[in-house]
Amino acid sequence: MDISTVAGLVSGVLLLGWGIVAGGAASGMSFATSLKAFVDFPSFLITMGGTFAAVLASYPLERVKSVPGILRNAFRTKMMPPAELIATLVAYAQKARREGLLALEDEAAKAQDAFLKKGVQLVVDGTDPELVRNILETDLSFLENRHKSGAAMFDTGAALAPAFGMIGTLIGLIQMLGTLDAPEKIGPGMAVALVTTFYGSVLSNVVFTPLSNKLKGRSAEEVLIREVMVEGILSIQAGDNPRIVEEKLNAFLAPKTRSSTRGQGQGQGRGGDAREAIAE
Asked: What local confidence, expressed as pLDDT, does residue 142 receive?
């Protein structure tokens, strides 16, 4: 579970609620009255329902049905840490130099990551290095495209929610104009009309945009991991020294992380179990 996603969404809602209640208290309104002024089901239905309908009209049904799965990626961390991956690939390089590439078949069978398993198996099968690179980079390219299309739905929601909030406000104002002969109804009517704009802004800036940004960040992290895998697999296939493999892969990381990874490799004496290096 990614705590920052949950903490950000929950704290955003709580801070908005606190601001509403504090503002109402300053105006002499009770807690219940302050919250009630911002609760209007028809306004929420116009904003949320209209946004969902527009997104549904903008994308194929199969893509919209994948939204729950896309959301899970924003709330959980399932990727292998770069340091762990590099330690694993260095261990593969050590085994390949000692026992040959065919010895990696068992490692491919045990690999939990499908992309890593595919790459290692291609090497074990004796596939041409250029073909290995083409296959893995094609897989990576389509992965990136899928991630972009998932984040794009949330970007669309972020763009449309304020617009539907404004549409709800216009509907409320039109309805309010019918009560001009009753001045006491104008104030409450105006408040309800403006609530839809509030809902649209909240959905856009507190929900859709942050989730889209988180998905884009997740995608960038996963692409980086896959690029490390590609470079590591090709280096192993080329018969590079494990030290060279480690140095190549460290180049993908920030200096602080890179230094930590090198320290793990040295601490293991280069011949240790990769799982021990992962444990940090």
From this structure: 92
The tokens for 62 are: 């199969």
**2 and 128 together in one domain:** no
Q: Which tokens belong to 118?
A: 């595919």
What pLDDT is stored for residue 263 in this prediction? Answer: 45
| 177 within 8 A of 25, measured Cβ to Cβ | no
**Does a structural domain hold residue 47?**
no
pLDDT reported for residue 258: 65
Amino acid residing at 29: M
Contact partners, residue 138, CB within 8 Å, separation at least 6: none
Question: CA 251, CA 253: separation in Å to the nearest integer?
Answer: 5
Residue 30 in domain: yes
- Number of separate domains in the chain: 2
Q: Are residues 3 and 100 in the same domain?
A: no
pLDDT at 1: 66
CA-nearest of 267, 280, 273 to 88 is 273
Q: Which domain, by its residues, includes 19?
A: 1-38
**What does the pLDDT read at residue 273?**
41
- Residues 232, 135 within the same domain: yes
Asked, for residue 181, whether it belongs to a domain, the answer is no
Contacting residues for 153 by C-beta, under 8 A, at least 6 apart = 55, 58, 59, 63, 64, 67, 70
Q: Do residue 136 and residue 241 come from a single domain?
A: yes
Task: Please report whether residue 69 resides in a domain.
Answer: no
Give Cβ neighbours of residue 130 (< 8 Å, ≥ 6 apart): none
For the chain, residues with pLDDT lower than 70 are 1, 77, 184, 187, 258-280
The verdict on pTM exceeding 0.70 is yes
Q: How wide is the angle at C-alpha 13 spanned by C-alphas 11 and 18, nearest 5°?
A: 90
- What pLDDT was estimated at residue 265? 42
